[in-house]
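B., you asked whether I could sanity-check this one before it goes into the benchmark set. Here's the sequence:
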Amino acid sequence: GFVSSNIHSPVAGTVTKLDKNIDSSGYKKQCIIIRTDVKDSSNLEEIEYPLKEEITLTPKEILKRISDYGIVGLGGATFPSHVKLNVKEDKKIDCLVVNGVECEPYLTADHRLMLEKTKEIVVGIKILMYALPVVKVIIGIENNKKNAIQAFLNATKNEKNIHVAALKVKYPQGGEKQLVKALLKREVPKNGLPIDVGVIVHNVGTIFAIYQAVQNNLPLTERVVTVTGKKLKNPSNYW
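And here's what the prediction gave me:
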């Protein structure tokens, strides 16, 4: 269906069956069972890719790559990104909002990603500006993440159409409707979407995944996860 995403295996192997298994939610879900190929461990190695700034794909090719490579919203909802980017002719968008607000107080995955992959995220933003096209971008980051705010101010100082906005720490500002209201003072209508007020919102994790797909030919098979809590000796973020 159109509102669905392609799935890519994070391991080499053979699909043996489709079955229902208990996942991290505690409920049985439809799963793809893969017998891994232990001979091929190349996918377990961490590869460092150099920053690639030149965009060589056309807007149409970028949108197809996002669809083919299974990019979904990594703010939590995992909504297929190509659906969000499929803007109908009767809709006019004038702003891309980049969501750098963690959606829950204990999470720091987006914060670490913004610090470690700042330049890649900025290139990802430019990819979306080119593909949509939009001329105005606002990166919303809560003001308790001062180092992330400074990192993006430094990385965008020569980009006149990309703005960084420091926001008051306010739960649940990570929701896209709340974020649009906080940044642009636009009210998304009941049962509506940000696109109804001329805005598309993408999480920083999603934008990094788009960069990886377009510039490094990598489908979405991993994300950063915060593992934390008072009982843990080493609360950390992990790929």
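One thing to flag: The chain has a mean pLDDT of 93. Otherwise nothing jumped out at me.
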